[in-house]
Amino acid sequence: RRTSQALSLSPPSYQALVEKLPSQTVINVVEQSPQKVIAADVAASAGVSLSKAAQDLTALASLSQGDIAVSTEGDLIYSFPPNLSSVLKQNSLKFKTQQALLKIWPTLFYVIRVSFGLVLLASLAAIFSTILFLSSSSSSDSDNDRRRDNRSMGGFGGGFWGPSPFDFLYYRPYYGGYYGTTAVRDPEEMGFLESVFSYIFGDGNPNEGLEERRLSLVANMIRDNQGSVTAEQLAPYCDDAPPPNPNADLQAYVDESFVLPIVSQLNGEPRVTEEGDIVYVFPELQQSVASTTTRPKPSNMSSEASILSRAGLRKNASAGEVQQLLNLNGISTRGVYEKKDLIGLLEQALPPLTEREKAGLQMDDPTMLQEREYEFSLANSFNRFLAGGLGIVNLFGALYLGNMLSTYAMYGVRLPSYFGLVQAGFPLLLSYAVLFNVIPLVRSLWIKTENEKIRRRNETRRKWKDLLDRNVFGNLGRKLKAARKMGTKMKRLGTSEEEIIFDTKQSMEQLEKVKAERALDEFDKLLEKEEKPFE
Predict the structure, then answer these.
(1) How far apart are CA 238 and CA 461, in angstroms?
(2) 3-state secondary structure 485-534
(3) Considering only CA atoms, which of 431, 441, 380 is closest in space to residue 119?
(4) Rounded CA gap, 418 and 400, in Å?
């Protein structure tokens, strides 16, 4: 019993701690896929590079005891158990721990966010309670001194305890009204304690998962174009693409280095056409085990939902509501009864889309890569103002308290009990007060610069998309036509058992039998070739 108990309590092995887990995105894609998958399908769905997809699939097969089949052309086909997550939890301590952390992280992060608001309140309480204590004790000592001897410490006290530029922070605490304010807010809105964290550090990256989305969109676009595209077709998904040339139909780009990151991650191959243009082909993406490959459908700017939203109606507004709006604006609906026809009248009555409205609609287009701009804070304006105001009060209070404590430091006086702790920890209080105000200021400047870059990139992507949606001619039209000629049909893998030369599902006896049968088939083919000349 002691031996078994010691084994159960032993720490995890080094291999268990350093084992490499596949990304959660790849695991999710495999769980939602059919029984068989290949690296190309996973890369297109998960938005990872082909090498990353192959690496994660191999690691996943090792951890879950999945099977790997090899086709006659050397392609790897993976198959996994249906209850993949359960198997991984049983076989991998690291995966089990990771899943447990993912479950408790939202609660833990909420506690962290709330703690920043509590720290601000604790700092304010520590600073102003100490100021109150020092001010009251100073006033009491001054009264006693005047009663004993009007000459005792008169000049010294007046110099340090007289009027100060920071006196308004304590003697006229007009900020104190905020503490008792109880505003009626939506329960789903961010509370004040969380808003403090949001005010200091923001609310994270609004473009989380952008790289995965980029590669997924590009891979599906390449598949839609039969694995052969030009740099102009890749430009709407690149960060460093130059704005399209107004004469792009007549003049092609020479420098196409902006496509290299995408081409390298998806194992693309540049090929030169007879006219000297460069076309990028992706043979590995033209393989799939799925019967059909699907990608998100592009959103239509003139769809019913967008038209109703622009008119200020609900997206599922009834025909009567649309008719009422048209009649209120003096638009005749005589003879029009169908909702589709009424929305057509509404679309004609609306003004043309502004550039901002086009950008907003394209932001929701699942086939376009558009970045969202950073926001300073998602907290409501009142909570932001309250957090910023209290931060300023805290800073000036810390500066004023430092002025008061410097007097006691000159004479080596230690404050009693709780106030002694505040005196000892004052450098931390001052540092916190300074950083509380400096971090949002620096972050605000960074956000302004970063959003300007995002707007430029989004505008460049939209221009490329608009250019490709037109009927192009000249050099660009010639390149697109050459790319279509180089395209190849999708190759389906795993459709027949005959194309599989090795499968880990098979036993050694089965493998030997299959190998012998293939050898006999090859021998028969050779005999047939030799017999044909004699015939």
Answers:
(1) 8
(2) HHCCCCEECCCCHHHEEEECCCCHHHHHHHHHHHHHHHHHHHHHHHHHHH
(3) 431
(4) 19
Place of tokens 């109880």: 182
d(CA 166, CA 51): 62
CB 378, CB 187: distance < 8 Å: no
Rounded to an integer, what distance in angstroms lies between the CA atom of residue 534 and that of residue 388? 96
The DSSP code for 177 is G
Compute the C-alpha angle 379/384/388, nearest 5°. Answer: 150
Q: What are phi and psi of 278, to 5 degrees?
A: -105, 130
Question: pLDDT (tens digit, 0 to 9) for every residue of the chain, 535 residues total?
Answer: 333 333 333 444 545 444 678 888 999 999 888 778 899 999 999 999 999 999 999 989 888 888 888 877 788 889 888 888 888 888 888 888 888 888 898 899 889 989 999 999 999 999 999 999 888 876 555 555 554 544 443 433 333 333 343 333 333 333 333 333 333 334 346 789 999 999 999 998 999 899 999 999 999 999 999 999 999 999 999 998 998 876 655 455 567 889 999 999 999 999 998 888 899 999 999 988 865 555 544 444 446 777 877 777 777 778 888 878 888 887 888 777 788 788 888 777 887 766 556 655 656 677 889 999 999 999 999 999 999 999 999 999 999 999 988 888 787 788 888 888 888 899 999 999 999 999 999 999 999 999 999 999 999 999 898 888 876 777 788 888 989 999 888 888 866 666 666 666 655 555 555 555 655 566 556 666 666 554 5
76's enclosing H/E stretch is strand 76-79
Query: Rounded to an integer, what distance in angstroms lies between the CA atom of residue 252 and that of residue 483?
Result: 14
The Cα–Cα gap between 41 and 283 comes to 13
Strands 491-492 and 287-288, sheet pairing: parallel
First to last CA, the chain: 80
Sign of CA dihedral 492, 493, 499, 505: negative
Distance CA 303, CA 318 (A): 15
Non-local CB neighbours of 514 within 8 Å, separated by 6+ positions: 501, 506
Please provide the DSSP assignment of 448-484 as one string: HHHHHHHHHHHHHHHHHHHHHHS---HHHHHHHHHHH
Distance CA 446, CA 440 (A): 10
The pTM for the full model equals: 0.72
Q: Using an 8 Å Cβ cutoff, are 341 and 333 in contact?
A: no
> DSSP state, 10?
S
DSSP string, 312-361: T--TT--HHHHHHHHHHTT---TT--SHHHHHHHHHHHSPPPPHHHHHHH
- Joined together, the tokens standing for residue 336 give 């029009």
The Cα–Cα gap between 315 and 339 comes to 13
Q: What is the DSSP letter of 281?
A: E
